[in-house]
Design brief:
This protein is an all-alpha fold. The chain has nine helices and no strands. It is flat.
């Protein structure tokens, strides 16, 4: 499925379940997402970690609505509980299947977003591993001077921010030296076409979910 269409589909469904109170729809979405992830052979360990992420906020929200509100609406508490898992699994169905470079290329080619947005987002994803190693280097350098920089220390992230700003300047110079010119027609190393099946994959699920959202509890 086209990455842009898939992103639009997930955003639309997430938006709809935010304003409805259908427990059935949430459960259907959770089941469909789990089946989709299993089809793509996501590791059970990874899936287990993903399912653990919303447990604490979902349980806290469920208990608050069910026992500490005047109405004590148990159905709405279950709706909010399941909605948290639906959100996480919908996002996981995108992030674990589609790569950032596929999404950036699709947004640029199919949705005609500016090329600087595409390359900027790719640069941000590419810098993440380097930033992690840089933070560890800063911590070790501080320890050599007898200073402990914890992960919640403002000094650590201020230093990392300065390094990131320097990287952004270097990246901009590298792009210009390789012939990048903003707002000009560009060719693509890899094209991402929009197929007729992409339209079907986006429209059909939206049509199917509507009666479930508005007719079933």
């Amino acid at each position: 499925m086209n990455p842009s269409f898939k992103l639009i589909l997930i955003i639309l469904i997430s938006f709809e379940i935010s304003f409805t109170r259908s427990l059935t729809a949430n459960c259907v979405l959770i089941a469909v997402c789990l089946i989709y992830l299993m089809i793509h052979k996501i590791k059970l360990k990874t899936l287990g970690i993903v399912l653990l992420i919303p447990v604490i906020p979902a349980v806290a929200l469920n208990i608050t609505i069910a026992f500490f509100t005047p109405a004590q609406d148990y159905h709405f508490a279950l709706v909010l509980f399941s909605r948290m898992f639906a959100y996480v699994l919908l996002g996981t169905s995108f992030t674990l299947i589609n790569s950032p470079i596929e999404l950036a290329r699709s947004l640029e080619q199919n949705l005609h977003l500016p090329s600087k947005f595409a390359y900027g987002s790719l640069a941000a994803f590419g810098v993440l591993p380097k930033m992690k190693s840089t933070i560890l280097t800063l911590q070790k350098a501080a320890l050599m001077r007898g200073i402990t920089l914890s992960y919640w220390s403002p000094k650590l992230y201020f230093k990392a921010l300065l390094i990131a700003m320097n990287w952004s300047d270097e990246l901009a110079q590298a792009m210009l030296s390789h012939g990048y010119v903003e707002d000009t027609t560009r060719t693509y190393a890899a094209t991402i076409p929009i197929k007729s099946t992409d339209w079907a994959y986006m429209i059909v699920p939206i049509l199917i979910i509507q009666p479930i959202l508005f007719l079933l509890p």
